[in-house]
Model the fold of this input.
Amino acid sequence: KNYLENELQDIDGINTIKEYFDKAINEKDPTYLLTAYTAETDFYTTLNVDLAKLQLENLTAKENLSLTYYIGIIARHPKLEILSYTGKVFRGMMITANDVKKYKVGSRILTKTFSSTSKQRNVASTFHAKKTDKDDRLSTLCIYEIRNPRTALDIQQMSLFQYEEEVLILPYSAFKIIDIQQNENRSPQIEIKLKESEPW
Done:
């Protein structure tokens, strides 16, 4: 709750988020913390921006403990075990040509934020569609193979948009890039396959 009170006072939808956090505390039910994440407020955007700035070695610093607790509850609470998901998921996005160069087959990446994905390729594809012809970014589809049970949670039933069949990849999940396909004449222009690996 410190994170809400100290960092999120001015975000859109803060009262809705506070209600979900209060329910999570009063009913001892961590699913409300996930519902807060999926709600149509600025919470998930602000949370991910703050997580992206966080350095791994500073996770246990006093000022970061609220964020760390939030991640820890979602990643490890026994009541969320039933949401564990393994299998293939898809994430569509737009990235620059410079960003593409950073991805190399055989290299590993560590997610720092919560990443929304879908069990359905066609749903993920809507997120890499170009909005204008002037957009010089490349349409990109990432295909993740989730292998460990608590790396991702199937949150379809608590999402406002159940048709998206959303699966949430948790922060600090390690993946190895196993393939990159490029074809500028079709969409997606870039397809990146990633397989979950053990953290290094």
In short: Residues 9 and 15 are 9 Å apart (CA to CA). The chain has a mean pLDDT of 88. The helical segments are 2-7, 14-26, 31-38, 43-53, 65-76, 97-102, 121-125.
